[in-house]
Amino acid sequence: MPTDQPDQPENGSADEVQAEEGKAAEPKPGDPEYDWTQHYPDGTELFRYTFPGGPTVALKAFGTIYSKTWLYKLRDIESDFEVEFAAIDRAICPTGRSLLMELDDANGDPIDDLWNAWIKAGTSRGGEDEGLTPGNSKSSPAQ
Question: Which helix (H) or strand (E) holds 137?
Fold first, then answer.
């Protein structure tokens, strides 16, 4: 029996199919193309890091989280790793923190790799100055 309605494909209209394809194509947290800015206040300077063979995460730039007041609050922390974790926690959004919890440490130490890249990027003055890297407690003077 003929109807006045056009034939509909079994899997939905073209608009529905296109909408589903758009959803699948949107980057998710951890994807290199993911927009991390939505997790931070407008204008926040971010440091993006891609773990070898793993996800990409963004956290506030190293220099933006430090203040003498914050360091004063940390003065009784007894170990370097507690300071490192406190710094990362201060800089990263909850979504990024979830990604860190899912990292596989079977081959290496991804959090240590993130820490070293983050402090190097945040303390280097460019050129050959490596900033605060392991074995280098201070940056070379600016020229």
Answer: none
Residues paired with 129 in a beta bridge: 126
* Residue 58: its H or E element: strand 56-60
Model confidence pLDDT, tens digit, residues 110-139: 999 999 999 998 876 555 655 444 444 444
Query: What are 97's two structure tokens?
Result: 């923190």
- Could you give the angle at the alpha carbon of 83 between the alpha carbons of 37 and 115, nearest 5°? 50
Region at 19 (left for phi over 0; alpha for psi -120 to 50; beta for the rest): alpha
Tokens 């890249």 correspond to what residue?
Answer: 117
> What is the residue-wise DSSP string for 19-41?
HHHHHHHS--TTSTT--GGGGS-
Burial class (CB in 10 A: 0-12, 13-18, 19+), 29: middle
Query: DSSP string spanning 97-116?
Result: HHHHHT---SSS-HHHHHHH
pTM of the model: 0.70
One-letter amino acid at 72 equals Y
